[in-house]
Amino acid sequence: MDEPASPSPSHASTPSAPHPSGEDEPRPARSHWLAKLLLALCVAGLGVLIAMRVAATLAERERRAEERERIAARAKEESATLALAVVRPERFTWQPHVPLEGTLHPVAEVDLAFKVGGTLAKLHVRKGARVAADELLAELDARDALLQERAASAQIAAAEAQLFVARDNVTRTGALLGAGALPEAMGTQAKGQLDLVAAQLEGARAQQALARSNIEHHRLRAPFAGLVTQAPTAVGGLVAPGVPVFHLQDLQKLRLVGTVAAADAPLMRAGALLELELGGRTIRGAKLTVVLPTLDPATRRLPVEAEVPNDPDAPLLAGSFVQTTVVGAEPLELLRLPAAVLRPGSQDEIFVVEGAALRLRRIAYVRADDGTLLVRQGLASAELVALAPPPDAQPGQSVTTLADGAAPVPAGEP
C-alpha cells in the first residue's frame, strides 16, 4: 500500500505579511468610500448651481415687474393730464326746420259694401272713375224689396179706410150716447176700435218706411267725391252683406303720416307749415294737423300727420314716401358748436371743462346745413367744450386747455 504524499513545500500555508502602511483596512473599501464622497460633493454643487439659477431668474422677474410698474406709472402720469383744445359755444338764431319722413295717404278713403245681400243687377261706374258725393255706384236686384214696399202701401190704404169708418162710428155713437139711446159700453167699444185701427195704420206706415229703406240698401252711393280704385267688373254675381265691393279715395288733398325724433317733439305744433321736395318739385301750403302727445313704442319717435294739397294737373301719388321739413312758427335762440366736439363713438355726448377736469354732457341738437351742431338743450353759453377729444378720454380726467387750439387757457376759467 502506497503512503500518502506529503504536501508540497510550495503550497504550504504561510502567515500573511503585515500592510506596509501599518493599516488593517483593505484597499477596495477605501475606494468605495471616496466615490461616495465625490458623488455627494457633485450633488451639493449641482444644488448650489440650481439655487443660484433660480435666484437669478426670480431677481430678473422682479426687476422686469418693477420696470413695468415704472413704465405704467410714468404712462399714467403722462396720460393723467390731457392737453385739449376747447371752444366756447356761439349764440345763433335759428328758424326751426325739423326733418320729417313719412308716407302720403288719401285724405279720406273708404271700403264700400252693401248692407244687404243679393245679385248685382246694375253697375254705374267702373274702376278709375271719378264720382261726385252721393253718386249712385251700383244696384242689387230689388224686386223682392219693391214687392214688400207695395204690400206695405196696400196695408196703409186699408188701415186708412178702416180709420175713416172707425172715426165715423165714434161720431155717431157719441150722438146716440148723448141722447141716451145707447149704453155707455157702446161708446167705449167704438173708441177702442178707433184706437186699434189708428195703431194698425201706424204699423203699416212703419212697414212701408222699412221696405223703402230696404230698397235703398239695394243701392250703393258714394259718401264723398273721389276716385274709384276698386270696383266689380261685371253684373250678375252674388254680393254678400258687408263685403267690400268698391274702394273710394279722396285725392284732392293728401295726408302725410310720419314721425320725427323725440328730441324734436317740443318744436311740433298743429298748424306748422311744411315744405315738400318731391321729384324736383317744391310743394307749399302743407301744414301739420295731428301731433300725438306720445311716442311710438316700436320706434321711440313722435307720430305726426299733415295735410298736403294736391295739384290735379300734376297730382302727387298716394303711397309715395317723402322726406320733408317742418318749419317752426318762431325763431329759436340756440348755441352753435363744430361737429368735432362730439365724443368719438357717440351721437349726443360732449365733454365740457369744469375746473381742471372733464365732465360728460348729453346734448339735444340739430345739424345746420354746414354740418355744425345747433344745440337746444344740455349746454350753457359760458361753458368751455373740448374740441376733438381722444377716444380714451374719461369723465373726471385732468386737462390743460387751449382756446381753439391756440394759447393756453388757465384751467377753470370760462
Characterise this structure.
With about 425 residues, this protein is α+β, with helices and mostly antiparallel strands. The chain has 3 helices and 22 strands. The chain has helices at about 25-80, 145-180, 185-215; strands at about 80-85, 90-95, 95-110, 120-125, 130, 135-140, 220, 225-230, 240, 245-260, 275-280, 280-290, 300-310, 320-325, 330-335, 350-355, 355-360, 365, 375, 385, 400-405, 410. A 6-stranded mixed beta sheet has the order 17-16-20-1-21-22. The chain has a 6-stranded antiparallel beta barrel with strand order 3-10-13-12-11-14. It has a 4-stranded antiparallel beta sheet with strand order 2-15-19-18, with no helix packed on it. The longest helix has about 55 residues, at about 25-80. The termini are far apart.
Helix content class: 25-40%
For the largest sheet, list the strands in their spatial order: 17-16-20-1-21-22
How many strand units? 22
The poorly predicted ranges are: 1-23, 405-414
End-to-end C-alpha gap: 147 Å
β content, as a range?
25-35%
In sequence order, what are the helices and strands, one letter per element? HEEEEEEHHEEEEEEEEEEEEEEEE
Radius of gyration: 55 Å
Q: Overall pLDDT, averaged?
A: 81
Overall shape: elongated
Number of discrete helical segments: 3
Major beta sheet summary: 6 strands, mixed
Quick take:
The chain is α+β, with helices and mostly antiparallel strands and 414 residues long. It has three helices and 22 strands. The protein has a six-stranded mixed beta sheet.
Layout of strands and helices, then pairs:
Elements: H1 27-80, E1 81-87, E2 90-94, E3 97-112, E4 118-123, E5 130-131, E6 136-140, H2 143-179, H3 184-217, E7 219-221, E8 226-230, E9 238-239, E10 246-261, E11 273-278, E12 281-291, E13 301-309, E14 321-327, E15 332-337, E16 349-354, E17 357-362, E18 364-367, E19 373-377, E20 384-387, E21 398-403, E22 408-409
Parallel strand pairs: 1-21
Antiparallel strand pairs: 1-20, 2-15, 3-10, 3-14, 4-6, 4-9, 5-8, 6-7, 8-10, 10-13, 11-12, 11-14, 12-13, 15-19, 16-17, 16-20, 18-19, 21-22
Helix pairs in contact: 2-3
